[in-house]
Structures are given as structure tokens and as C-alpha cells.
Amino acid sequence: MIPERVHLKGFLCYKDEQEIRFDGASLWMLAGLNGSGKSTIFDAVTYALFGHHRGGGHDAHELINKDSDRASIVVDFALDGQRFQIHRTLQRTKQGKARATQQIYRRSPLDAWEAIEGSNLRTGFDEWIQQNIGLSYETFTSSVLLLQGKAEKLLDSTAKGRFEVLAGIVDLDRFAGLHARADEQRKELDTQVKTLTLRLAALPEVSAIALVEAEGRIADAEVARLKAQEEAERCQALEFQSRQWAELQQRLAGVRGRLGAARKLVGDAAAIEKAVERLRELRELLPRLQTVLEQRGQIAESERGTAELTKQQQQGQAKLDEQDEALAQSRQTRTALQNKLAEDEVRQRQVGEEFLKVTTRVEKLKEYERQENDLKLLEEELGRLPADPAGAVRRAREVHDNLDALARVVPLLSRLQTLREELRQATAREKTAGETRQTIHRRG
């Protein structure tokens, strides 16, 4: 197991997110003042792997930072040429305890993290660690990682304790299993030896004459074996020759078949010559047929092109008719606009004439107002003079006449206001008509 990265957040003194990477070199050193969080990094590794910390396997809520409600640990490591990632989280509960989760991921060939099935459960997680890491928390902290203040744990242990630690380091359980299997095989073989020894002791004793006779029978059997071997070799040679004869018979049958076919071809020579002559004639006609086929293809292509051009012509004629109709409508619209413009021009001239008349009347009205002011001044002066009934009557009549003239001018002022509004509207219509006329001229 080779650690590559440790990622912490809300774990012990690491409230904020912190990442420590161990790639790029084979030897690393963590240095810092006391209490700076060096041991916390190793606590994170041991807790991620075994769910234990320096305080034991309980009270995991004490691992959560006092200013946080959640702690997370991510440890990346390499094992047997593969990359793995362990996730551990601690969530503070309302009762002040902690709820933990765990998960192991494997880096796939597609460079994606895949969750290992069953590792989200505590039993499956511990089983995977035991099968792949092969160390317990005690063995790990006694050999791979020596806890602060407990570096002498291995030296101060009893013989049994040291054996258990070293057995966990080198995986002596596997060798113990091999020893047990070898011992069982030894016991089985020992039992077989004892059985064969008893059977050998139970056999009767053989005399020298019986041994000579047995040797003679063995020699006769050896001679018979040699003869049988020679006979077997002869039979093998005959079998090989029979196989060759069968192959020759098959080849002979093939040759006879080809000979029959050749004879049949010789009999059909005249028909074959006629067929060859016909083939030569057809080959001579083939270029002409190809030319005819090419011309037919060109004719068909021309007909298709003609049909397409006819269709396009019809479509163009339809578009032309639509454009002619639109042009006629545009011309009618232009004529109507020109008529409207002429009417507006006539109306404008009429309004201008009426405006001149109104302007004259306005001038007269101003003159009447000036005379009225003068009359008021005269009246004031007359008021300062001695009373004259005849003069007052005369002045009253003059005032009445002026007021009567003023009353006749008021409708003219209203008419003047109306004419001004009509003149403004006519000017706006003239401007619109001018823009429309320019648009029509641009369109042709």
C-alpha cells in the first residue's frame, strides 16, 4: 500500500478543506510546531482504513471539529498496481454522537472511480481491508505507523505479543495453513507406509529356485514382447501402405473423372467452336450496344432535364404573373396615392387661402382690441371729466358697436383654430404622401 493523497475537512484541528499529496517523490517528511496537526494526518489515515483513532474505536464524534457539524476524510492509495480511494464521513447528531459512513472506490480503466460492492457496509468494508491490506489496526500502528509516544510498543511487548505483531506483518497465517496441510499429508503418507510395511511382512518368503523360474518366465515374456512389438510395427507398416493405396485409388478416381470430362469436351468440340464464334460476334457487337445504351441514357437524361426546365418555366411564369398582378396593384395604389396627393395639394392651397383671410381677420381683431384699450383709456379720461349724458350715450353706442364687432370676430377665431389644425394635418399628410411617392418612384 502506497499513500498518494489525504483530503480532510472538519476533522479534528482541520476545520477548512485541506489536501496533502504524496506524489512526485518516494520520501516525504511532515514538519511543524507542536499542535500544528501533523499527527492528525496519520489519525485520518488510520481512521479511514480501520475506523480507529488514538482514543480507540469509540467516541468518533470527538473527531469532528468543534466548530463543524460534519467531518470528511478521503485517502487515495496504490495497491498491487491499482489505485483505490477510501471515503469516510462523520455527521454530528442531535444527541451529540456521530453517524458514520464509509465507501471504497477503485479506479477503472476508463479513468473513473467505481464503488466496490458491499464496501458501504461496515462488515464488507472491514472484510475488504483484511483481504487486501492484510493488517489490523494494532499491527499497522506497531509496524507501518508508529503512534506518537508508542514507538517502543513492539520492543516492550511480551514474546507472544511480538509474535502476533510480526505474524500480522509477514502474514504468518498463510504459512501456518501451509504447515497444517503439509503435516496432514505427512500423516497420511506415514499411515500408507505403515500399511505397506504390514502387507510386506504378511507375504510368504520366496526361494532361490522360484526366483530363477520367475526370471526365466520374465525372459520368455520379454522375447514374446519383442515379437509382438515387431508384429505391431509390421502391422503399422501395412496400415500405412493401405492408407497410401486408398489415397492412390482416390487420385485415380479423380483422374478418371477428369478424363471423362475431357472426352466429353472433345465430343462437344463442334458446339464449343460455334459458341466461341457466337461469343466473338457478341463481343464485336458489345461496343455498339454500349454506345446505344449510353445514348439512350443521355436521351432519358435530356428528357428529364426538359421536363425539369418545363416545370421551372411554368413556375417562373406563375411567379411572373404574380409579380405582374402585384405591379398592377402597386400602380393602382400609386394612382390612388397621386390622386390623394393632388386632393391634398388642392386642400392645402384652400387652407392657405383661408389662412391668409384668417390672418387678415386676426389683424383686424388686434386692431379692435387696441381700439378697445384706447376706448377704456378714453372712458377713464371721460370719468375724470364732468358728466355729459349725450356724450355717454354716444360712447355707450360706440362700445356696443365695438362689442358687436368683437362678437362677430370670435367665430372667425374659432374657425382660424380649426383651419390651423387642418393645416397641420394636411402638412403631415403631404409629408407622408411625399415619402410614399418617393417609395413608389424607387420601386419603379
Largest sheet: 6 strands, antiparallel
The radius of gyration is 63 Å
Q: What is the number of E strands? A: 6
Could you say which structural class the secondary elements and strand pairing correspond to?
alpha+beta
Distance between the termini: 89 Å
Q: Low-confidence spans: pLDDT under 50, at least 5 residues? A: none
Overall body shape: flat
Q: Give the SSE order as H and E letters.
A: EEHEEEEHHHHHHHH
What is the averaged pLDDT score?
A: 81
Fraction of helical residues: 55-70%
Count of discrete alpha- or pi-helical segments spanning 4 or more residues: 9
Strand order of the largest sheet: 2-1-3-4-5-6
Strand content of the residues, in percent?
5-15%
How would you describe this protein?
The chain is α+β, with helices and mostly antiparallel strands. 70% of the residues lie in helices and 10% in strands. The chain contains 9 helices and 6 strands. Strands 2-1-3-4-5-6 form a 6-stranded antiparallel β-sheet, with helices on one face. Helix 3 crosses helix 5 and helix 8 runs antiparallel to helix 9 (389-443). The model has no long low-confidence stretch (mean pLDDT 81).
